[in-house]
Specification:
This protein is 44% helix and 14% strand. With 200 residues, it is of the alpha/beta class. The chain has a 5-stranded mixed beta sheet, with helices on both faces. A hairpin with a 2-residue loop joins strand 4 and strand 5. The radius of gyration is 15 Å and the shape is globular.
């Protein structure tokens, strides 16, 4: 299955949208990690070039969590798919509520592609807001409270049988500076790895 082709069925190939142009077996994906927003240069995204900016922080996070990975393909082979909540590059420092809303149909379709999910990781507040809006359509409530992540990241939240884990943004230079957030994101990824390992 090609993810981009599946998502273009929702949009009819919408202008300015960037979807992951990768082939994968949806049955093998056990975890989805939702990051904030696509970069302005698609080659710097998770499935872009080998030394893409988004991988410069993502790969080390996985390695610190104990995963023997050096490429995005290694992560995919573990049954973990990474995507962005917002499919258009941001034009301002913050991402407006209406931009998140506009992108919900694509993220909702994307999550629905994977029938065997055990974990959804929400990497940052934008991912948390987007996922809560999707879940609320079905459950009539937010899955994850809008409380500071460090206060709730150890709590267990579920969307049906899927564990939902709030964590921190996994991209950007700030992550390298904010050592505590990097440490917490590493711990959260380690927890996710143990869940999919125990249930596989």
């Amino acid at each position: 299955m090609n993810v981009k082709k599946e998502l273009e069925k929702v949009t009819g190939g919408g202008e300015g949208l960037y979807f992951n142009n990768i082939e994968l077996d949806p049955q093998k994906i056990q975890a989805v990690m939702i990051n904030e927003v696509v970069p302005s240069d698609p080659s710097q995204d998770f499935y872009g070039q080998a030394d893409a900016d988004y991988l410069k922080t993502t790969i080390p996070l996985f390695q610190k969590a104990g995963a023997k990975v050096t490429t995005i393909d290694d992560i995919l082979h573990m049954g973990i798919y990474i995507t962005n909540a917002v499919k258009t590059p941001k034009s301002q420092y913050t991402i407006e509520k209406n931009v998140i809303e506009d992108n919900l149909p694509y993220l909702e379709k994307e999550l629905a592609l994977f029938p065997n999910l055990k974990v959804i990781m929400l990497m940052g507040d934008v991912a948390k807001k987007a996922f809560n809006r999707i879940a609320k359509k079905e459950t009539k409530k937010h899955i994850v409270p809008s409380t500071a992540t460090y206060k709730i990241r150890s709590s267990e939240f579920y969307y049906g049988s899927i564990r939902v884990m709030p964590s921190y943004i996994m991209t950007g230079g700030n992550l390298l500076i904010e050592k505590s957030k990097m440490q917490m994101a590493t711990e959260d990824i380690a927890t996710m790895l143990s869940i999919i390992k125990s249930e596989s």
